[in-house]
Every structure is written in C-alpha cells, then in structure tokens.
Amino acid sequence: MTSSQPTESVDVVLVGAGIMSATLATLLSDLQPDWSMTVLERLNAAGLESSNAWNNAGTGHSALCELNYAPQAADGTVSAKKALNINEQFQVTRQLWSSLVENGTLESPGTFINPVPHISMVFGEDHADYLRARYDAFKPHKLFERMEFTENRDQIAEWAPLTMHGRGAGRVAATFAPEGTDVDFGALTNQLLTHLTGRNVTVRYGQEVTTLKRQSDGSWNVSVEDRLNSDNNRVIHARFVFLGAGGGALSLLQKSGIREAKGFGGFPVSGLFLRNTDPTVTSQHNAKVYGQASVGAPPMSVPHLDTRYVHGERTLMFGPYGGFKPNFLKHGSLLDLPKSVRAHNLYPMTRAGLANLDLVKYLVGELTKTRSQRMDALREYYPTAEESQWELIEAGQRVQVMKSNRQKGGVLQFGTELVTSADGSIGALLGASPGASTAVPIMLNLLSRCFPAKMSEWEPRIKELIPSYGKKLDENPQLADEIMGHTAQVLGIK
C-alpha cells in the first residue's frame, strides 16, 4: 500500500509522457527554470500511446486538407473560420519547434518533421462542387494563399500519381498545398523529454497514479504505484498537477474531485490502418491525400492515403478503419468505459449517445468489414493497390469528449477540451485531433488559466520563442511572410 504521507515534494507533477506533457514541461522549464518537475508515465517509455508514430496519422494539422474543418452549410456556403483557427495554432507550434531547433533543444528537424504536400481529393459532382466552394472560401486568406485547385486529371496525377493509376471515368477534384508536413510526434516527444532529463525535470516510467488528494492549501498529494517494484510506491506532494495522460486523463480528472470535472464522459474510438513499406510503391507517392468522411463517421476517421516518415523510413499508410473497444488507452483496461460512468455524467452520456446513432451504425459497419472490403476502400484512392503489399496495423485509442449541454442534455464533442480548476492548481486535457499539432497553443492557454499572475513576467520570453504570440498571422501578411519563411527554413520545410 502507498503511504498517505508525502515521500517527496516538487512544484509540478505531469501525468503521462506524451507530446502534451513534454510540451508543457518544455515551456515551464524555460519560463520558470527554478521549478522542479516530475513526469510520471505508466508504460516503460515515452510517447507509446497517442504520440507514437504508428498510433496517429502524423499530419501536421493545419486544415490544408482536412475537409471536416470546413463543413458546407445548408445554403451551400463554406466558412474558413475554423480552419483558419487551426492553421494559426499550428503556426504557433511550428514557431516553438523552430526556436527549439535553433537553441539545440531539438535535433535535426528531419528527425521529427518532413515536407509532405497536403491534398484534398473528392469524387462525384456534389463533392467536387463542395471542394471548389471550399477553395474559393480559403484562397483569399494569407494562410491558404498557396493552395491550388484542379479537376485536370494530368495535374492530379503529377501531384499524387498512385491516386490516378487505373482510375475509371467520373469527376475528380483536388486541392494541393505544398507547405504540408508529416510529423513523428513520438520522436519529438522523446527528444523533448531527453533534453529536459537531468535539468529540473525527472521522468519516471512504470509509474501509475492511483489517487489525487487536494490539500487545504490547494496543493495536491499524488499517490503513485511502481508497476515494477511495489517497494517504490510513493506519494508526491505538488503545487500543480497536469493530467496529460491521453485517454487516461478522464479517470484521473474524476479522481481529483474538482467541480469542473462534473458532467464529462468519454467515448472511445479505436482504429486500424493499412501500411505499405515496399519502396517500389512508397517512392511513387509523396503526399497526404484526404477525402470525405462517411456519413456518421467521426472526423478522425476521414479516409486518407499518407506518406509517413518514421525512424527515417518512408512508408505509406491508408485508413483509418474505425472500431470500438471500451478501453481508453491502447494499453488500457476493457473496464475503462464502464468505470468512467458516474451519476453526474450518465445523463449527458446517454443523451449524446442517442444523438449520435449514425456514429454507432458507422462503427458497427467498420467492425464487420472484411480484408477485401478494406482493400476496396483503399482502391478508391489507389485503384491499382495490390493486397499482398499491405499489412494491417492497430492505431491508438481516441476518447471523444462527451459533456453536459443545457439545450441538448449532452453532446459528443470532436476535438480537445482543456479542463482546469478554479484555483488553477490542476489542469487536464481531454479529447483527440488536432491535439498534438496544436499542443503549444493549448499549453499556452493552460498557463494563462492556471498561472495568470505569472503571465506578464513570462510574456517577453514567450514572444522570443513564439514571435507571433498574441497576433493573428492571417491578419498580418508581412509578419506572416517573415515568420513562416523563417520557421520553414529552420525546420527544413517548404
């Protein structure tokens, strides 16, 4: 049993050794180098859950190709507002990475980010009309000014040859964004944590947080079980706690007992990808090609044919194929979902579920797909794909946020949700895509909410690391050219 008395004290405890904790620890270590921090990870290495390269699509989410960020309204119009917001956030993330490369925190940028154009491709009259409307809405904006649109098959074949080999008749439309990227968030996470280790940050593996108890002064006692040696169980006293444990953050948030956690639930969605490592195929495709999601499919299940760079190797990946498992982590428990149900979230979860029966129908259909049917889906984007060249791999778990809603009782929210206590002593990140790509602005938001009294002191340094901090690049064309040009040069991307 873990003793109820603290065995050590630190300023900050971060739960989960993924991209979120690594980003927050990096910022805090720079802004407040006198603070001591401990990162606790239940697995035996960093970045093995959602941050792992094969557990996500590696898309530097900047809304260049993800059509779900710009849905078409009933009147046929398309708004670029949400897409612009996501792109602005990724530009902030890129600026921090650029600064960290320049100061030696990160290694050669090619170890974690590579230039890969982003393409949207659709088939049929209605989808082609939508893509044209989206292009017309995006093109006037500074952040999307390099985007191109075409229905010319020869041009599409030049952009993404495999997508046009053997394609039959029918209308095809595509947009092309040359500044797209592929990111290995697992490699990035490990580089950040390796640099922090030995400074003011301790990273411990095989450590599972079991309870969180708030103290009278607002600090926390964090009970930790050592999964390899129970003699090393401990209680860590911390002034601030961050729950960045991916799907595992919800249960820990519930254990904290803070009022702000009431009404939150989670719906896990699993996924599978087809992977191709044959150089004769991978050498012919250098793009991330995103299409339209099936009816009822969650945004993370938009079909895409991607170039991936993992450990220096260029591969192809197609998917994801949706699925359902009740565990909140890939290496979690099948009891995660039922154990997360509480009196305060049962009604919101029920209402959200009833409002998303299309999602349930979609997942049932995905679960019953045969390998032949999965290949048929691939051949919509790569018509001449050979089945023998593709292997099926399991992706990471994504836990979509379910929360109470005054009008609807409960809603299923796609995206991320930052939950912080009123006193700023604890924060948690729930949800999924585009989380990793927007880790830096999310963590800056957390800092402003949890440490408001420190922000004026930290702001000058934040602006050194992120020159556009507090400004919108899309609204400042000259600044955008300067900053985006510099980050592209430092990171070795277009």
Shape: globular
* Second-tier CATH architecture: 3-Layer(bba) Sandwich
Domain count: the total is 1
Q: How many strands?
A: 20
List keywords for this structure.
FAD/NAD(P)-binding domain; alpha+beta; FAD/NAD-bd_sf; single chain; globular; 10-stranded mixed sheet; 8-stranded mixed sheet; Probable malate:quinone oxidoreductase; 494 residues; (S)-2-hydroxyglutarate dehydrogenase activity; 15 helices
Structure overview:
By secondary structure, the chain is α+β, with helices and mostly antiparallel strands. The chain has one domain (8-475): 3-Layer(bba) Sandwich (FAD/NAD(P)-binding domain), CATH 3.50.50. It has 15 helices and 20 strands. It has helices at residues 19-31, 81-102, 125-138, 153-159, 161-164, 185-196, 249-256, 279-282, 336-340, 343-354, 357-367, 371-379, 439-450, 455-465, 477-491, and strands at 8-15, 37-41, 113-115, 118-123, 148-150, 172-177, 181-183, 201-205, 207-214, 220-226, 234-243, 265-276, 288-290, 304-310, 313-323, 391-394, 398-405, 409-413, 416-420, 426-431. Strands 4, 5, 6, 12, 13, 14, 15, 16, 17 and 18 form a ten-stranded mixed β-sheet that branches. Strand 1 (8-15), helix 1 and strand 2 form a beta-alpha-beta unit. The chain starts with 7 loop residues before the first strand and ends with a helix. The model has no long low-confidence stretch (mean pLDDT 93). Its cofactor is FAD. It comes from Kocuria marina subsp. indica. GO terms for molecular function: (S)-2-hydroxyglutarate dehydrogenase activity; L-malate dehydrogenase (quinone) activity. It is an enzyme of class 1 (oxidoreductase). This is Probable malate:quinone oxidoreductase.
